[in-house]
Write a structure and sequence with these properties.
Blueprint: H1 6-19, E1 27-33, H2 37-46, E2 54-57, H3 90-93, H4 135-139, H5 146-157, H6 176-187, E3 191-192, H7 198-201, E4 207-210, E5 215-216, E6 219-220, H8 223-226, H9 228-231, E7 237-240, E8 245-251, E9 255-261, E10 266-278, H10 285-291, E11 294-295, H11 297-303, E12 319-320, E13 332-339, H12 353-361, E14 375-383, E15 386-395, E16 408-415, E17 422-426, E18 432-438, H13 445-464, E19 468-469, H14 477-486, E20 524-526, H15 540-560, E21 569-570, E22 574-579, E23 583-588, H16 594-601, E24 607-611, E25 617-621, E26 627-639, E27 649-655, E28 658-663, H17 670-675, E29 682-686, E30 692-696, E31 701-712, E32 725-731, E33 734-739, H18 746-751, E34 758-762, E35 768-772, E36 777-788, E37 798-806, E38 809-814, H19 821-826, E39 833-837, E40 843-847, E41 852-863
Parallel strand pairs: 1-2, 1-10, 2-7, 3-4, 10-20, 11-12
Antiparallel strand pairs: 4-14, 5-6, 8-9, 9-10, 13-16, 13-19, 14-15, 15-16, 17-18, 21-26, 22-26, 23-25, 24-25, 24-26, 27-31, 28-30, 29-30, 29-31, 32-36, 33-35, 34-35, 34-36, 37-41, 38-40, 39-40, 39-41
Helix pairs in contact: 2-15, 5-15, 13-14
């Protein structure tokens, strides 16, 4: 195929930019508008495929340390933390005039604390994490089944922390309020549960439990850390902060071609197969789309020709979507404060020095590891013919005028599924209003009656157990009902519904289709809470799931409109490396991953180096040649077969002989993974779980399997074990056992256990490795297979106990012991260190460098 000359590439790009009256722009397969929880999850998933280029545009600044944030409290200086990493800083950060730069400031009618920073609200909220009941997706006609939601939320949990014991010493703190409230609820027939367990979340009514958070190791582990961390070193993804999107560029036929940002001073363009993911939040996604000429005709007419809205007057005309911005909901809430003689209030806003000292100097323990909520309760019942879902959240202090009391606590009382709705939109002066029409708070008489009923029940239950109701002049039903009615409704920041998706094509109120695409557009997808039709529990966890679902839809769109990249494949990118000389030409590309396709199409190109020169340039080369270290450069070699492996056999599965399996977005990554795994001599790749390399001791038998790719590996790592002895059992000296379908898998399992020196494999329970401290006595045993660790295999890496290497995360992988992380780290490009914790049965947190060390009970860390 003939490649355009570098000069012609530049001319084409400049001509396009000139036509748009905007400067040079780069092209991307996916442009994510907003870096909130949905956007970051979507970007992380899409960027796992190195052939897909991803741009994330965030209007605000950096946040957590993992994003490069530097806003640190005085007591934490020099510890590699920002205020956003520290859970206890939550109540000190929001509604604080010193932090206005982190708050969305384009909503004119209400003062609210929606996050404008990397991670969005998930970087400043309480990080309460709830999983909705399976019935939720059916009731709101969500396009995807409950089983799919469960699977993808489980997969998300492999990356983000989730715990109801945030302190690293596994202790609960500030439990006085929990004890008082739990006693009252138990007297009302409630039962105590673990909130997010499958049985609990699917049978919520009249239950309570400890508040669950997305914290890990005493620190916030929301998407700005958990999802940005793994993708921050990928060359095919870029995050721009201070990049406020103005509008989506459109061509005729409902095709988005890019976005314009920062007041028209910059743009980013889509590739021909690309898509836009709207993840700006339920209040801002409609704003950007309406500014793009997509939305209700009344709104578009209002802005047409008005200065400051060039996106409305694009040559492609308008895309009328009558429901964009409508159906907006928020959880309805009132705050009921109580006093009790056994209560000892904890006021986070006072930032008690003893709590911050304990946090910083005792291994991230104590009350500062929490954002405040201690107890969550649920109850569902019918009010005036409608089933309402109620929730109480216990806080450690009084609310409003009662904040300073030493004996006060608060119950935030929620209606999680109100029927009240509002509509966001522009007013006649061109100002964006969250509540341009309607009333989201007690906007119907039934919603008000529901809250009055629930508040009366809760207040009565608390008073019966010795609490005094502080928020009103009395605790009788009439006084409580009048108190609720006097509340106009507080903003909860649980917004959703403003562009909801539905599987029901006959739903006249839906704004997005069964693929999460905005109606009227082919390649604009909703990846935030706007897609939710109805409220349920705090939506943060569900929003992360929406991001994953939207990414799947975009992945399918990209594949259907141009596939997964070049027909030529390349070796893994070498970051920080320049291939010296051998240049044949150069071409523009916004990311290093884009160079592979360009090299494959260019005559004489066998390798490339990418640098950021001129916005991103591929330096195409006739061969790899000599190399040198160069900061910011990325290089790779074009290959027609997987380097170091035989030619890949398409649609072929090498059955059996498995020794391990590891994730890889494509078969190209399997060769290096096999080489780095002891005893691996071949592999089969399938698309299971986003792409998996099934590593094997040898080729074995081959069978046809659609989509599978297999190859034999040369130059792999010498087996860490001696040759297998067939029909032999090493009797006794057992130190443990682990499942493996083949004896070849036992070697790596033995290596991962510090006291294992040998093993015997039998077919028990589908295949079991009996791990042993020594060979012991050999006895004949039909079907048994045994081997020893070779003398050269025991060198792994230096391990330190009860230490966490904080930050610098690349990815995570399961391992039953810290020792097992050594080989896993070696098999992952860029991994130089790790921390192991017991989370999920044992997890290796793989890191690009050691970074800051901090005490963490039970953790095991090591350096490669």
């Amino acid at each position: 195929m003939r490649v355009l000359s570098p000069r012609l590439w530049v001319s084409v790009l400049l001509a396009f930019a000139s036509a748009a009256s905007i400067g040079d722009a780069q092209t991307y397969d996916a442009i994510v508008v907003g870096s909130g929880p949905g956007g970051l999850v979507a970007a992380e998933y899409l960027s796992r495929d190195p052939t897909v280029s991803v741009l994330i545009l965030e209007a605000g600044p950096k946040s957590l340390a993992a994003t490069g944030g530097t806003d640190t409290p005085d007591y934490a200086q020099g510890r590699g933390l920002t205020k956003f990493d520290i859970p206890g800083e939550y109540d000190v950060t929001i509604y604080n005039s010193a932090n206005e730069q982190y708050r969305v400031d384009w909503i004119s009618d209400s003062y609210m604390w929606l996050g404008k920073l990397v991670g969005g609200c998930s970087s400043i909220n309480a990080a309460l994490y709830f999983r909705p009941p399976d019935s939720y997706v059916t009731q709101m006609q969500w396009p995807f089944p409950a089983s799919q939601m469960v699977t993808k939320m489980n997969e998300n949990e492999q990356l983000h922390g989730h715990t109801d014991r945030p302190s690293t010493d596994n202790q609960w703190y500030t439990q006085e309020g929990y004890n008082i409230v739990s006693k009252a609820f138990l007297a009302q027939g409630y039962s105590e549960r673990t909130i997010n367990d499958a049985a609990s979340r699917n049978s919520k009514s009249k239950t309570f439990g400890h508040a669950p958070f997305t914290f890990k190791n005493g620190k916030r582990d929301t998407p700005a850390n958990a999802f940005w961390g793994p993708m921050s070193t990928r060359s095919n993804v870029k995050l721009l902060t201070g990049a406020k999107v103005d509008y989506v560029l459109r061509a005729s036929g409902g095709k988005a071609t890019g976005v314009v940002y920062n007041g028209g001073s910059a743009q980013a363009l889509l590739t021909s197969r690309g898509a836009v993911l709207m993840a700006a939040g339920a209040l801002s996604t409609p704003k950007v789309l309406i500014q793009s000429g997509i939305g209700p005709s009344a709104q578009l007419n209002l802005l047409n020709g008005r200065s400051g809205f060039p996106g409305v007057t694009q040559a492609a005309g308008w895309v009328t979507n009558a429901n964009l911005g409508r159906n907006l909901f928020d959880t309805n809430v009132v705050f009921a404060s109580f006093s009790h003689p056994q209560m000892a209030s904890f006021q986070y806003k006072n930032r008690p020095s003893w709590a911050t000292n304990q946090y910083m100097n005792q291994g991230f323990t104590g009350p500062w590891t929490s954002s405040g909520p201690t107890l969550i309760s649920y109850e569902n019942y019918d009010v005036q013919g409608r089933t309402y879902q109620f929730q109480s959240t216990a806080l450690t202090n009084g609310f409003g005028q009662f904040y300073g009391r030493s004996d006060a606590f608060t119950l935030a009382l929620y209606v999680n599924n109100p029927e009240s709705r509002a509509a966001s939109g522009f007013d006649s002066a061109g100002n964006w209003k969250a509540f341009n029409e309607g009333d989201a708070y007690f906007g119907t008489a039934r919603d008000l009656a529901a809250m009055q009923s629930y508040a009366t029940k809760v207040v009565s239950a608390m008073v019966a157990q010795g609490s005094t109701f502080l928020s009103a002049s009395g605790s009788d039903a009439t006084t409580v009902s009048n108190w609720v009615a006097s509340n106009d409704g507080f903003i909860t920041h649980h917004f959703g519904g403003s562009c909801y998706a539905s599987s029901n094509a006959g739903d006249s109120k839906r704004c997005a289709d069964e693929k999460l695409r905005v109606l009227g557009m082919n390649n604009v997808f909703v990846a935030d809470a706007a897609a939710m039709r109805d409220g349920t529990v705090n939506p943060y966890g569900f929003i992360m799931y929406i991001g994953r679902e939207a990414a799947d839809q975009v992945k399918s769109y990209v594949a259907a409109n141009g596939g997964g990249g070049s027909t030529g494949s390349c070796s893994s990118l070498e970051s920080g490396v320049n291939y010296i000389g051998n240049d044949v030409s150069n071409a523009l590309s916004g990311t290093a991953s884009g160079c592979c396709a360009i090299c494959a199409d260019a005559n004489g190109c066998k390798a490339f180096t990418w640098t950021a020169y001129n916005g991103g340039t591929c330096w195409l080369k006739s061969g790899k040649g000599m190399t040198e270290n160069q900061s910011g450069a990325s290089s790779a070699v074009l290959q027609t077969s997987t380097s170091g492996c035989s030619t890949v056999e398409d649609n072929m599965d090498y059955t059996g002989k498995d020794v391990a399996n590891k994730p890889s977005a494509s078969a190209d990554g399997c060769c290096s993974l096999c080489k780095a795994t002891g005893g691996c001599g071949a592999f089969t790749w399938t698309d299971y779980s986003g792409g998996t390399c099934w590593l094997k001791s040898s080729k074995g038998s081959g069978v046809a399997k659609s989509g599978a790719k297999s190859a034999v590996v040369s130059g792999g790592t010498t087996s860490a074990c001696t040759a297998i002895e067939e029909g032999v059992d090493y009797s006794g000296t057992d130190v443990g056992n682990a499942l493996s379908s083949a004896a070849e898998g036992c070697c790596a399992l033995c290596q991962s256990k510090t006291d294992c020196k040998a093993y015997t494999w039998t077919g028990y329970n589908g295949g079991t490795c009996w791990l042993k401290s020594s060979k012991g006595t050999s006895t004949p045993s039909i079907g048994a297979r045994s081997a020893q660790l070779s003398s050269s295999s025991t060198a792994t890496c230096t391990l330190v106990n009860n230490v966490d290497y904080y930050g610098n995360d690349l990815s995570s992988a399961l391992s039953s012991s810290g020792a097992g992380c050594c080989d896993i780290c070696r098999a992952n490009t860029g991994c130089k260190a790790f921390t192991w914790t017991a989370q999920g049965g044992g997890t290796c947190w793989l890191k690009k460098l050691q970074g800051t060390s901090s005490p963490l009970a039970g953790a095991v860390s090591g350096i490669i």
